[in-house]
Amino acid sequence: MTKKEIAKAFSNGEFEKTNKFISDTAIWTVVEEDTFIGKKAIIDNCEQVGSYFQSVTTDFKTLNIIAEGNKVVINGTAEFLRDNQRVSFVSACDVYEFDDNNQIQNITSYCIQKAKND
Description:
By secondary structure, the protein is an alpha+beta fold. The chain contains two helices and six strands, in the order αββαββββ.
């Protein structure tokens, strides 16, 4: 997989496809929420998030992918539905930093959840 393909898969919740591309010392920072240090912590969180994704209908839309050198930036939206009712809607931007072997070193995620009454 290319860096862009790895990043897009991760941003769209296709975590299993990306596990082998996460460095043992990678750091995932979800701004204002949490930080996951190391491959195991990142994969453990991905499994929890993946379980949630399986409990709802997900609609991911990728708006932009910008890649230069070892960095890839993806922004898009995610809508989560249960019984045809919106559970949540998130606008997100993920910044990926890779090494020269296509291994993710850092992920910085900015997630803005739409207020329930909007």
